[in-house]
Automatic annotation (TrEMBL):
It is a multi-pass membrane protein. It comes from the Bacteria. Pfam families: Plug, TonB_dep_Rec_b-barrel. It comes from Rhodospirillum rubrum (strain ATCC 11170 / ATH 1.1.1 / DSM 467 / LMG 4362 / NCIMB 8255 / S1). The lineage of its organism: Bacteria, Pseudomonadati, Pseudomonadota, Alphaproteobacteria, Rhodospirillales. This is TonB-dependent receptor. Its main location: membrane. Belongs to the TonB-dependent receptor family.
Length: 682
């Protein structure tokens, strides 16, 4: 999707949609979050009192080694024919990563662009696609903005996260719209049965940055619960790079809760709730500036944003465990407000309601856990609403009436294992939309293990769709951008094939994958005479993307782990222009060394990007041309030391060589920064 000012890095600010809703709905979700938090805390207090203190529990055994986003039911990574990368919470904490987007930079097929420093709008693209072609799930809940269809990673901190899965390639047959190029699934911490404990961390460093978090988990034989609170204040930098300009700061608070209860061996309940509240300063953008250095100018702009994601589910096993049922409800809310000189300039509220019923049958065994062949059927219902209210309706009348749209999805999936070494997966989905064309998507994949050579062949093929956004469908400011009710969903066809090779057991693992994708009906903005107002249309022609992903993991000793990856991305639009903000070459190399009986560790990573382009917004081009940004390599260093079994100190230096670089033209980025922290478990 490219929509008028959408090329502008701060997509929603440019369109006037950066959020904050007020009134009775705001009070309602505040009360709901408060009740949920109190309930989880009360449950944990009782559990701790009953079970006594124990170590904080990490990833539960039920999900270890399984990929939850690659199928409607969890699937073992070794049986998966799709391309996937996994980061664990332990990986993030050992490296001292504070923002999830910084961790995603280390993965193949991923391109991250941030508008300046911490708090700047952060987009994540997979395999050369657009940011709104990536479905982002947190504990299974879609968290993208209903207005723009994409998720801003600027506010996603890493403190309470236990697992990140990045599934590359079209996945709409499983998950519907926006999974056009892949899925990023994030799982937060949960308690472990019959254990209780917690963790507290504090850190601070360069640019007045300060952060802290507290997390608690507890469980009995049939219940587990977790609650976490994290705060991060980044002193920031002047992203305009004007001499004597104002510092652009970021403040972030995240509350997360999770609870699971087994009423019996066949009946289970679960619920999650998450709230992230942040304020980010940003500077203005001057389209048509004479020089690149004048594009971003100093200004007292700010965004208040609050994201809420809530889910509840009930699971029922029948036929002695051969047939499972799940009913689930998800709710997402995104409130944004933009301010100039402390005065509100725009407010918007986007909401998503989703209900799902799913059933899975073991075809060849008495239980699902022992089955080699499984069939899943699901029905999804989703309603999205959006309302935008401008503070000055006279001089800049924006669209104030609320908009709503519904869709229904019908899903069927088969998973099977043949001859022990061949794993197959196939899915088919039909989406019924009330506002635009219906769509049908499919996906298939295969994984074959060649035991004599310790090789694994994997391949997948599928289609994806991305529905028009509210902005594209209904418009925004009538004097600037008009909606198009006749838009069709964007469509993607993609396939990949590769080989994974293990050498000396698990001491060395290599993987090479080629991918190819073709996007049709891409939604772009055009300016038609005589008014030259912007509007969205489906562009003729194909947008082509292809590339190679190489990964390496080596463990030459028990103390040393080496990882590396390289991605070549070749992405062009229908006019044969190179796609922006997708480096043609990306590579990372990382090393982690443990010593003193694993009580201490150091790590280093190099991130390299080359062949990255952005729009040229200077007067001569006004965004019609591209310009190449400088290639760069960043060095990050980290270390940790356990003072006791319960207390650990850690530190991290980012951009240790003080490299000057840019993800987006005109935006200054941070030089060398460092911080030091302490983490204690109880």
């Amino acid at each position: 999707m490219v929509i008028g000012c959408a090329a502008f890095p701060d997509r929603e600010a440019a369109l006037g949609g950066r959020v904050m809703g007020y009134g009775s709905p705001d009070r309602a979700w505040r009360a709901g979050m408060g009740v949920f938090g109190v309930a989880v805390a009360a449950v944990m207090a009782g559990v701790v009192g009953a079970s006594g203190a124990a170590a904080w529990a990490d990833e539960p055994e039920t999900t270890e080694g399984l990929i939850v986003s690659a199928s409607r039911t969890p699937v073992a990574a070794k049986d998966l024919g799709r391309s996937v990368s996994v980061l664990t919470g332990e990986d993030l904490r050992e490296r001292g990563v504070r923002y999830v987007s910084d961790a995603l930079r280390q993965l193949p097929g991923v391109a991250v662009s941030r508008a300046g420093g911490p708090g700047g709008v952060t987009q994540v693209r997979l395999r050369g696609a657009e940011a709104n072609h990536v479905l982002v799930l947190i504990d299974g809940v879609a968290v993208s903005s209903p207005a723009s269809g994409e998720y801003d990673f600027a506010g996603l901190v890493a403190s309470d996260i236990e697992r990140i899965e990045v599934l590359r390639g079209p996945q709409s047959a499983l998950w519907g719209s926006n999974a056009t190029a892949g899925v990023i699934s994030i799982v937060t911490r949960r308690g472990t049965r019959n254990q209780s404990g917690g963790e507290v961390s504090l850190d601070g460093g360069s640019d007045g940055t300060f952060g802290g978090s507290v997390a608690m988990g507890a469980g009995t034989e049939d219940l587990d619960a977790a609650l976490s609170l994290a705060g991060l204040r980044a002193g920031g930098l002047d992203v305009s790079a004007d001499p004597g300009g104002d510092i652009d700061r970021d403040r972030n608070i995240t509350l997360n809760g999770k609870i699971n209860y087994d009423a019996s061996d066949w009946l289970r309940f679960g619920a999650t709730a998450r709230m992230a509240d942040r304020r980010s300063d940003y500077d203005g953008f001057a389209f048509g500036a004479p020089k690149r250095s004048d594009l971003v100018y100093d200004g007292d702009y700010a965004t208040d944003q609050r994201d809420v994601a809530v889910s509840g589910h009930v699971d029922v096993d029948s036929l002695g465990g051969r047939l499972s049922h799940q009913a689930r409800f998800d709710y997402t809310r995104v409130d944004i407000q933009t301010l100039l000189d402390g005065l509100s300039t725009a407010k918007s509220l986007g909401q998503r309601f989703k209900g799902t019923y799913q059933t899975t049958l073991a075809l060849d065994a008495p239980t699902l856990t022992s089955a080699n062949h499984r069939l899943t059927a699901a029905v999804d219902w989703q309603r999205e609403t959006f309302r935008n209210t401008d503070a000055d309706l006279v001089s800049d009348p924006s669209q104030v009436e609320g908009q709503q749209r519904d869709l229904y999805g019908l899903v069927a999936e088969y998973r099977g294992t043949l001859f022990q070494d061949l794993d197959l997966q196939a899915a088919l989905r039909h989406d019924i939309n009330d506002s635009f064309a219906d769509s049908t998507t499919f996906s298939t994949s295969a994984s074959y293990e060649v035991r004599p050579t310790q090789s694994r062949l994997h391949a997948s093929v599928g289609t994806g769709v991305t529905n028009p956004t509210f902005y594209e469908q209904f418009g925004f400011i009538p004097s600037q951008f008009i909606g198009n009710a006749n838009l069709d969903p964007e469509k993607n066809f993609g396939w990949d094939a590769g080989i994974e090779q293990r050498i000396l057991g698990d001491q060395l693992t290599l993987d090479a994958t080629y991918f190819h994708e073709t996007l049709t009906d891409e939604i772009v903005t055009v300016y038609k005479a005589p008014s030259y107002l912007g509007t969205a249309v489906n562009e003729n022609g194909d947008s082509r993307r292809q590339g190679i992903e190489l990964t390496l993991t080596a463990r030459p000793t028990e103390a040393l782990t080496l990882t590396g990856n390289y991605t070549w991305t070749d992405a062009y639009d229908p006019d044969d222009k190179i796609e922006v903000r997708r480096p043609r070459h990306r590579a990372t190399l990382a090393a982690d060394y443990r010593f003193l009986d694993n009580r201490a560790g150091v790590n280093a990573e190099v991130v390299y990007a080359a062949g990255n382009y952005d729009f040229d917004y200077r007067a001569a081009s006004m965004g019609s041309a591209r310009l190449r940004l400088d290639d760069y390599a960043l060095l990050n260093l980290g270390g940790r030391y356990k003072v006791t079994e319960a207390v650990e100190v850690y530190g991290r230096i980012e951009n240790a060589l003080d490299t000057q670089y840019a993800d987006l033209d005109g935006y200054a980025t941070q030089g060398v920064t460092g911080y030091f922290g302490l983490r204690a478990r109880f």
